[in-house]
C-alpha cells in the first residue's frame, strides 16, 4: 500500500486589494475570495477591482467571485465583467439555473454555499451536488430579514459538516469562524477538501501578516490514504 499525503487547500476570502492578494499568494493560498455586492457582511469590493485582482492572479490559483445574484443571466454577466475562474453562489439558486450556467461558462467552476444550520443542510448539499463542482459549508442565515450569506465569523456544527463531506463525492470546503487556533481541529474533524478563512486572518478589517502566517502553519496536510 502506498501512503499519499493529502494536502488541505486554503482559500483566503474577503480580499480587498491587489496588495492583499499578493500577500495571500505569498503564503501559499490556493484560492482568493472576491466579494461582490451582498446584503450584509464584510469584504465587499467593486467589480473593477475584482477584475484587476483576477487578471493578475497566477494560474492555477482559484479566483472565486462571491455572488448573491439569483439568476443565471445575472451571474453570467458578472463573470464576464470580472473574468474570474470560479463562481461562488452564496444563496439558494433555483435548480433550473444551473444548466444555463454550465452551458454559458464551460470553463468556469461553480461552487455552491450551503449554510449549515440543521440536519436539513445534509439534504440541501446532496440535492445540489450534481449541479456544481464543489460545495462550501458556511455559517450564514439566509432566513433573516437582512440575509446573512457569509462572513459571520461563527463556527457551525462540524459534526454536520463531516456528515456532508461523507455524503458527497465532490470537493467540500469548510468555512465559518476558522482561525489558527481551531483550524487543525476542524480539518481533523471534518476532513474537508479545503478550508476558507476571512475574519480569522484579519485585524481591523485588514489582512494580518502574523495571523495569516499562523493560520497557514496550523493547516495540517490531512490524513494518510
Descriptive report:
It is a single chain. The chain has 225 residues and is an alpha/beta fold. It has one domain: TIM Barrel (Alpha-Beta Barrel). 34% of the residues lie in helices and 19% in strands. It contains eight helices and ten strands. It has helices at 18-26, 47-56, 72-82, 97-104, 120-129, 158-167, 183-190, 209-218, and strands spanning 9-12, 31-35, 62-67, 86-89, 109-115, 134-138, 172-174, 194-197, 202-203, 206-207. Strands 1-2-3-4-5-6-7-8 form an eight-stranded parallel β-barrel, surrounded by six helices. A two-stranded antiparallel sheet has the order 9-10.
Low-confidence stretches: none
Order of helices and strands, N to C? EHEHEHEHEHEHEHEEEH
Largest sheet: 8 strands, parallel, barrel
- Kindly state the mean pLDDT as a whole number? 94
Approximately how much beta-strand content do the residues carry? Answer: 15-25%
CATH H level, superfamily name = Aldolase class I
Separation of termini? 9 Å
The structural class is: alpha/beta
Overall number of strands: 10
Strand order of the largest sheet: 1-2-3-4-5-6-7-8
**The number of domains:** 1
CATH class type: Alpha Beta
Second CATH tier, the architecture: Alpha-Beta Barrel
What count of helical segments does DSSP give? Answer: 8
Could you tell me the CATH topology label. TIM Barrel
Tell me the helix content.
25-40%
- Shape, per Cα inertia axes: globular
Radius of gyration, whole Å: 16 Å
Amino acid at each position: 500500500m502506498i501512503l499519499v499525503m493529502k494536502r488541505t487547500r486554503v482559500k483566503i476570502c474577503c480580499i480587498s486589494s491587489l496588495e492583499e492578494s499578493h500577500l495571500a499568494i505569498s503564503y501559499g493560498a490556493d484560492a482568493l475570495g472576491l466579494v461582490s455586492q451582498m446584503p450584509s457582511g464584510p469584504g465587499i469590493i467593486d467589480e473593477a477591482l475584482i477584475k484587476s485582482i483576477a487578471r493578475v492572479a497566477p494560474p492555477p490559483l482559484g479566483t472565486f467571485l462571491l455572488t448573491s445574484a439569483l439568476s443565471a443571466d445575472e451571474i453570467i454577466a458578472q463573470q464576464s465583467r470580472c473574468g474570474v475562474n470560479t463562481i461562488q453562489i452564496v444563496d439558494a439558486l433555483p435548480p433550473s439555473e444551473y444548466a444555463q450556467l454550465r452551458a454559458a461558462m464551460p470553463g468556469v467552476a461553480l461552487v455552491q454555499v450551503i449554510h449549515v444550520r440543521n440536519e436539513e443542510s445534509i439534504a440541501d448539499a446532496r440535492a445540489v451536488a450534481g449541479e456544481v463542482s464543489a460545495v462550501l459549508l458556511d455559517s450564514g442565515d439566509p432566513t433573516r430579514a437582512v440575509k446573512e450569506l457569509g462572513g459571520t465569523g461563527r463556527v457551525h456544527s462540524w459534526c454536520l459538516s463531516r456528515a456532508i463531506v461523507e455524503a458527497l463525492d465532490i470537493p467540500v470546503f469548510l468555512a465559518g469562524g476558522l482561525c489558527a487556533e481551531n483550524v487543525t481541529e476542524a480539518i481533523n474533524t471534518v476532513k474537508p477538501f479545503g478550508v476558507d478563512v476571512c475574519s480569522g486572518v484579519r485585524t481591523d478589517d485588514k489582512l494580518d501578516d502574523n495571523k495569516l502566517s499562523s493560520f497557514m502553519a496550523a493547516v495540517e496536510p490531512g490524513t494518510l490514504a
